[in-house]
Amino acid sequence: QGTRDHPPAHMALRDRLLATVVACFKRHGAAAIDTPALELRETLVGKYGEGARLIYELQEPGGELLALRYDLTVPFARYLAMNKITNIKRYHIAKVYRRDNPAMTRGRYREFYQCDFDIAGQFDPMIPDAECLKIMHEILSDLQLGDFLIKVNDRRILNGVFAICDIPESKFITTCSTVDKLDKMPWEEVRSEMIGEKGLSPEAADRIGEYVQLHGGLDLIERLLQDPKLSQNKLAREGLGDMKLLFEYLTLFGITGKISFDLSLARGLDYYTGVIFEAVLLQQENDHVEEPASVGSVAGGGRYDGLVGTFDPKGRKVPCVGVSIGIERIFSILEQRVKASGEKVRTTETQVLVATPQKHLLAARLKLISELWDAGIKAEMLYKKGPTLLKQLQYCEDTGIPLAAIIGEQELTDGVVKLRDVAARQEVRI
Amino acid sequence: QGTRDHPPAHMALRDRLLATVVACFKRHGAAAIDTPALELRETLVGKYGEGARLIYELQEPGGELLALRYDLTVPFARYLAMNKITNIKRYHIAKVYRRDNPAMTRGRYREFYQCDFDIAGQFDPMIPDAECLKIMHEILSDLQLGDFLIKVNDRRILNGVFAICDIPESKFITTCSTVDKLDKMPWEEVRSEMIGEKGLSPEAADRIGEYVQLHGGLDLIERLLQDPKLSQNKLAREGLGDMKLLFEYLTLFGITGKISFDLSLARGLDYYTGVIFEAVLLQQENDHVEEPASVGSVAGGGRYDGLVGTFDPKGRKVPCVGVSIGIERIFSILEQRVKASGEKVRTTETQVLVATPQKHLLAARLKLISELWDAGIKAEMLYKKGPTLLKQLQYCEDTGIPLAAIIGEQELTDGVVKLRDVAARQEVRI
């Protein structure tokens, strides 16, 4: 339940998608790492808030309490602390596990890939953060998924807003998760939840509402830096200062056109400490409405400066910022698109089929195909002693093999091969 | 316990190794598939003989009984039966799990990669089987692991030998597993185990010994086909006939030089029904003895015509033959070799570091690196506002970046970039 086999057509599309993502990660100088799918249960406990109940645990009679990893970020932080690594730029593509109620039509699985890029280390502010946004921008552009928008915010700005609206600090995180719903429900409903479920006063909710509905660019940052109340809050001032710096760098990268400083962005996870970001695909005007998978969040991330310290016996911190590409959602979109277009995805890369028109020439086929393999050419033949030429050419058409190398009696005598362009139905003797 | 993190240096070497293996699988027209790491427990039960106790089970309160996959062959057979696939050539590279006593110095882990290529379908005899041996030969040659030998046998020949030595059929499998130890212990010890532990008569053991110590090529096959007793056994006759055909095909492939028909090869798994094979690395004369990882089995496989049928409600059979590359063992060998050679494995592919000799040129670096990324060039920069040129060049040397693109005041004024060959210490203005 909640898992699936990936047949060759899936894998071919998935490999194409991952190749684009990995190429971008490598272009930015990232190294690959891998960690076990199994972690000690205690490593995962207390990291995912309500997500904790979704962790898969393993029976290990008389041994360690184990669990399947829930994401790649916590294992990364554990890896850094365990190996005392204070400086690394890495990517990691691997499966994670969540004992969730599967909703496979909406792309929610119990086993799925995550695809993470992170920069760990003590650096000058906002330079790695800007690179993470550049990476999101490059990948979404390279994949040609259509128009997109990258929302950016900072946990320190949000916390500053809550503080000047007189929200007690104990309610920051829960208020955050209500704010985060602004992309799915109108302000009125979010306001009701703040008052009804989270117990904020209507006045506090309204004051929060004035801020979290704002979005813009450098102009908005400047305006908030002048805001008489917000500019008094130390955290907010730091966050806004860094946001300004970030926008300067993004301007140099030439990507501010698709970036929005959006105060409604909050992100679910507890461990973020600074900049947070999320990329959404924008519904095209000519899009069909029955394609719900074509909108929504396709990448996200942020800064988490405290997580590595929780795994270090002395609490030594390693600042980190990273981005996670929502590969499963992007895969669904690409798959729908391929289906709609009627494009036939080849599942193999075979260049040539070695074929014979007569029945007793298996030996000639075996000899020729062996030479082709040894020369590095991707070649197949049918595993029959005497298949008909029609069947062999049909196999080429079915699987998209562009060429057939045909050897019959005459070719053997003449010491040549007849090379046939399957689509054009043209032959040359070589 | 029994698992490990793979740091960047591991991953770089591993990616190199897997690229060679995947290139070979694709050269032979295989498509990729993936299956979940989680399987229903009942799928795995009864497939691995004594291995069953090593299966990892999962807590799933009130739900399905789950287990982590133990190999890739059983999930492949389950996949074929479930999707009624009767014809496929696929490869699968993924992690498998065994709750074994870890012996990490000997490369025995609880989580490790398997790397399988299989051909499923009803075909003319020995053509796919020969291709599996060709694949082993290509991969071991491509990886330049040193001299190797591929041992080949057939379960039907072994069973025929047991039958004419009057072994009861109920003891075939257990006798098989004793025979399989002939590569690690002398005949005398194997004989003792047959008599002492397996309860065979000394005469029966001696008669088995006459056969299972034989190895050779076509000549041996011909001799056994003339053997007055063995040739009377139907199974053995079929096996020997197919072995002869196999050697004909291997001759056409030009690889018999490294193939040995070896009657001591038995292989552990229960599900083999025909040809079985195993590749071993041969100790070089000038090898150091303290490198024990450099000998032993590095690939194996065989024909299993009954496994898919066990998952089909109507028992419909899909004949299969496949090969598994022992990627973990090969990785250990390559790792030792890299260590011994002192070669420094690059963990990133960065082509150029964008550097500045003066302190206030961060903006220039960000602009230039952004252009390089957009042009598809792998580029890095230090995440500092004003790093010294020495530090920047040192970073190139530490990480193997071949070029530095340097922009200072003068270059900015002239509209050029100074491109430095780090190793040669030569610069050109472009």
List keywords for this structure.
2 domains; 38% helix; homodimer; elongated; 14 helices; five-stranded mixed beta sheet; EC 6.1.1.21 (chains A, B); alpha+beta; nine-stranded mixed beta sheet; 430 residues; Rossmann fold
Tell me what you see in this structure.
Two copies of one chain form a homodimer. With 430 residues, chain A is α+β, with helices and mostly antiparallel strands. Chain A folds into two domains: 8-341, BirA Bifunctional Protein, domain 2 (2-Layer Sandwich); 352-429, Anticodon-binding domain (Rossmann fold). Chain A contains 14 helices and 17 strands. In chain A, helix 5 runs antiparallel to helix 10. The longest helix of chain A is centred in the N-terminal third of the chain and has 20 residues, at 8-27. Chain A is elongated and about 95 Å long. In chain A, 43% of the residues are buried. Chains A and B meet through helix 1, strand 1, strand 3, strand 5 and helix 4 of A and helix 1, strand 1, strand 3, strand 5 and helix 4 of B.
